[in-house]
């Protein structure tokens, strides 16, 4: 605890809601970057965007148990507050880091009444029961506590961005800003889960990303895109020994299934080394 409080004078560490409220009260132009820790360059790109657009920038670190449909996934999720703060203190312009406890977020007695409509139970929502209900619930609570002008989120979790943007902007005056996916030299999207892979596995994961990225170019000349993706799904699973949950082309505006490459994205979820990864191209 002493370490947290003395990391850097200008970057204030907020460990409870009382401190959060007192420190944020004077400000009315706050940029917010919600994270579950495992800070990487993708998070840092969101912070840089916030610094350009907002007077004050706040980063939260909270591993939300409500959005994990798998208890094992929650227990193995990479989390190291000390390492995260070492990274964050090197970035000038971060004003606040909010590190709440479970009771700070879920201190109200209200039960979650957030539901996902049947038409939205696609992609990750289809395979992770209760996941997005948990995401929307915690984002609702965080937005209500922090009252940011803008929230910055990456496009790697595109379905999450889509649902959060619609939900938050319909309820609050807060704007959700989607930011481009940051990738490593092997074209693998940066993710906290990457920390669970060794160097050799990261190379293979990068090759997988290249394969999925190539599909976007290939489908431009295909008459039956869905059939082509079904065949490619089978081939990639066999070659890389991975389990692909879904490999679909969807319209980037409404997430409906698409048969045209224009204004559409390929969405993929797969298990590699028993770790679940998602991406879009």
Written account of the structure:
This protein has helices spanning 2-5, 17-24, 41-53, 71-76, 81-88, 102-105, 123-127, 131-146, 158-171, 199-218, 225-240; strands at 12-14, 30-35, 56-61, 96-98, 150-154, 175-179, 243-251, 264-272, 275-280. The chain contains eleven helices and nine strands. The termini are far apart. Helix 8 (131-146) crosses helix 9 (158-171) and helix 10 (199-218) packs antiparallel against helix 11 (225-240). The protein has two domains: 2-179, Rossmann fold, CATH 3.40.50; 192-280, 2-Layer Sandwich (Pantoate--beta-alanine Ligase, Chain: A,domain 2). Strand 8 and strand 9 form a beta hairpin.
Layout: helices, strands, pairs:
Elements: H1 2-5, E1 12-14, H2 17-24, E2 30-35, H3 41-53, E3 56-61, H4 71-76, H5 81-88, E4 96-98, H6 102-105, H7 123-127, H8 131-146, E5 150-154, H9 158-171, E6 175-179, H10 199-218, H11 225-240, E7 243-251, E8 264-272, E9 275-280
Parallel strand pairs: 1-4, 2-3, 2-5, 3-4, 5-6
Antiparallel strand pairs: 7-8, 8-9
Q: Can you count the beta strands?
A: 9
Shape-level CATH architecture of the largest domain: 3-Layer(aba) Sandwich
| Alpha-carbon distance between the two ends | 41 Å
| Spatial strand sequence of the major β-sheet | 1-4-3-2-5-6
pLDDT averaged over residues: 93
Shape call: globular
Strand content: 15-25%
By DSSP (H or I, 4+ residues per run), the number of helices equals 11
Estimated radius of gyration: 19 Å
Assigned CATH class of the largest domain: Alpha Beta
Question: What about the largest sheet?
Answer: 6 strands, parallel
Order of helices and strands: HEHEHEHHEHHHEHEHHEEE
Look at the structure and name the CATH superfamily of the largest domain.
HUPs
CATH topology grouping of the largest domain: Rossmann fold
Low-confidence stretches: 1-8
| Class per helix and strand makeup | alpha/beta
* Total discrete domains: 2
